[in-house]
Amino acid sequence: MNPSRPRGEEVPEPGAAGADETDAESVLQALRQAGDDPSQSEATRELLRQAGDALAATLHAAETARLRYRTLFDAVPDPVSIIAEDGTVLDLNKAGMDAYRRRREEIVGQNISVLNPDLPRDHMIPVWEALNRGDTYVIEVTNMRGDGSRFPVEVHSANIHFDERKSLVAVARDISGRREAEMRYRELMETIDKGIVVQNRDQKIVYCNGAALRMFGIGENQRADEELALERWRIVDEDGNELTPEELPSHRALASGHVIESVLLGLYHRRNKHLIWLTMTSVPQFAPGESVPTQVISLFSDVTELKRDSALFDRAQSLAHIGGWEWDISRDRMYLTEESLRILGAARPLETLDAMLSCLREADRRRLRMAVQQVAAGSGGFDLELQGCRADGHVFWIRVIGEAEPADPGSLRITGTMQDISLDKQAEEMLRIQARTDPLTGLMNRDAVLTELGALLEDPEQARAAVLYIDLDRFKMINDVLGHNAGDELLVQASDRIRGAVGTDGMIARFGGDEFLVICDAGDDRDRPEALANAVLHAFADSFRFGKDEFAITASIGIARAPIDGQRPQQLIQNADIAMYDSKHRARNGWQMFTPELARRQQDRMQIETQLRRAVDNEEFRLVYQPQVDLRHGRVVAAEALIRWQNHQLGELRPDLFISHAETTGDIVRIGSWVLREACRQVAEWRDQGLGIVRVAVNVSYRQFVGEDLAEKVRSLLIEFDLPGSALELEFTERVLIEDAPATLRTFADLRAMGVVLTIDDFGEGYSALNYLRRLPIHGLKLSQLFTEGVPNNRSDVAVCQAVSAIARSLGLGLVAEGVESEAQRQFLLQLGVPVGQGFLFAPGLSPDEFARRLDTPLERASIA
């Protein structure tokens, strides 16, 4: 296409060289043959030759024009297409083939929809309407490449006659980069922390970014133009003078066409009575070809806090206790402000560097002198925290900042500030102490004692430290019965008693929960750890009081020595813990030295716990049944199911050995479920053997009681084995008495409604909450073997048995005595009115078959001792 041609002028079609050029070549060849024909006259041949030359010249000119058109057409860097009036693509340049990633023949001859399949059917109508008016048509569309990918283009269209056809030329400019730039610009506008407001020539708001909306408190459902209407705001300058609309930076920028920079404005919201301060810059913007701004962009920052701080600056300086100082190096002259002199506690002016340094401790004198010397040598400034002592003896901390300042030629001055940071240092020390202190007891905490013990063990001269690991006995019972507040009070009282017992002979720490550590030097006095342990036990001899309640709380103590029992803090503490654990499980209220044998037992406990987890799955448990006997006639009235454990590695283990482990690990819940099911199965088997319904008592762990829906489990087992509720007796510890919760009462009521017999086991051993006892729907109590073993000779045990028997009678509850082993015990219990007992006087735990044989025969008293 010849760019010099006027719009609408015909241009040769670059693709028309086919038929027309072939015909012209044929004519030219015929003319030349005729011009060489000797039969023609010389004049005719000359005319023919001239005609041939003229035709050749014309063909050459046409080819030259075609090549020029193609060269210019393909030289355009943007895609250019010639499109017929019906939308057919007549030609496409090289840039178009590259942009659309298609060959020319895939596009030429096709409808324009091949480049943009999203165009509506009548898309050419508005194009030709604009072109027929003599306008250029511009539109943004999305074109498609050969691989189906899309890209945005801006298309400029104009009239053209092509091959004697009314056509248009369309130039498509790829605007992907512009779109990405616009997107990044919008993202920047929204993420920048400066407020941005765009106003048109009439100062109507056309855009607010997110930061501006936040600064002005404009919500999602509010319109910015309404909320920022001038009548809603009173706008003042930095001196508080109200500004007119014409004085605002945006108006001035539009009026002058110049940038109005960094204007401080106060905007007071008339309705909310809220004032914000902004620093604003307004920039006018011009449209292409315009001489006056078409819009203005205002950028601003919220400086409300800075403005407030500036107003308070003078007062803040006087309150901050910051003084100034200057040292003239050439004359060794020191100048200190009055505040600096006050900070240093100087009674007179300090006129030299040495005079100022004399207020500091020796080490800090050297630090400050070296710092100013380095500044004098050109090494930059310094920022130091220094300690000193005032004339009145008070210690102080100061922060000194200094830097070189150019002065007269040949002179150098160092200037800076001095701030009293004594209170900050005291606060830091307080925080350091708090970080090492248990907030409840005021003792060292776990981290602090580990650090101190580590330091002791690293020092060869103090490496023979000893650790006392102290654990309070029955602390959990106080927490459960009286609540956590009483538990905290107990810990405070206990820590005070340990402090009094240890004195200055050791470091004391609360290690966690109800556990305490005492660290002492066992080098000079080998007996000191044992003496301290005895002193602590003696301190716990008196009962603890909580209001009207009184509790005997004792302590179990384990002792480990370095280096024989451990050379690292954790190892030494762990071994002391092992010793404490042994003391607690043997007798409580005592102490135990660590031995390798205790470590071996600890390993055994771990092995027991490991095997215990698999015992149910490996079918290692079995039940034996101890008869419950009518004390007067010797008739079996019921049985208690007792668990036994035969492990393939550990052999037969006593219940008192593994039950406590199961309680600790939580395995007791799964074991308890197995016991309950096996007992029901056995009762059903005896019934099927014609022995009737034998009531079997099963112990229910507290963990089992709170950890599952016990009533629902019992109901399903009774249904599964077709048993009445009276076939089952559930024995609970006294701990359930304190669970005065609706769920507890509901569970007991549901069980009783099924006919299940409910009993409190080992009554009297724990905290006997009689108030709760009368509220629970239970049937009976079991008198602990702990008390029956002392009757009839031990007066205390006799008194307890009499009391429990009286409680049972007054509440209408049944009573069963455990641990009956002698005829004298049986006679005493009969006289006391206890109807039923169990124990070795009658029988130990029996296998199911052996128990079945005893059912029809009254047990001979003392037949099994």
Strand adjacency order, main sheet: 25-26-28-29-30-31-32-33
Query: What level of helicity do the residues show?
Result: 40-55%
Distance between the termini: 127 Å
Total helical segments = 29
CATH architecture of the largest domain: Alpha-Beta Barrel
User: For the report, how would you describe the main beta sheet?
Assistant: 8 strands, mixed, barrel
Give Rg in angstroms.
Answer: 52 Å
Stretches with pLDDT under 50, minimum 5 residues: 1-19, 310-318, 858-865
Count of structural domains? 5
Kindly identify the CATH topology of the largest domain. Answer: TIM Barrel
CATH class (first level) name of the largest domain: Alpha Beta
Amount of beta strand: 15-25%
CATH superfamily of the largest domain: EAL domain
Mean of all residue-level pLDDT scores:
82
Structural account:
- Strands 25-26-28-29-30-31-32-33 form an eight-stranded mixed beta barrel, surrounded by four helices.
- The chain folds into five domains: 1-75; 192-311, Beta-Lactamase; 320-426, Beta-Lactamase (2-Layer Sandwich); 440-594, Reverse transcriptase/Diguanylate cyclase domain (Alpha-Beta Plaits); 610-855, EAL domain (TIM Barrel), CATH 3.20.20.450.
- It is extended, with a radius of gyration of 52 Å.
- It contains 29 helices and 33 strands.
- It starts with 9 loop residues before the first strand and ends in a 10-residue tail after the last helix.
- α1 runs antiparallel to α2, α16 packs across α17 (528-539) and α23 (710-720) packs parallel to α24 (742-753).
- By secondary structure, the chain is α+β, with helices and mostly antiparallel strands.
- Residues 65-118, 181-222 form the PAS domain.
- This is PAS domain S-box-containing protein/diguanylate cyclase (GGDEF) domain-containing protein.
- Residues 605-859 form the EAL domain.
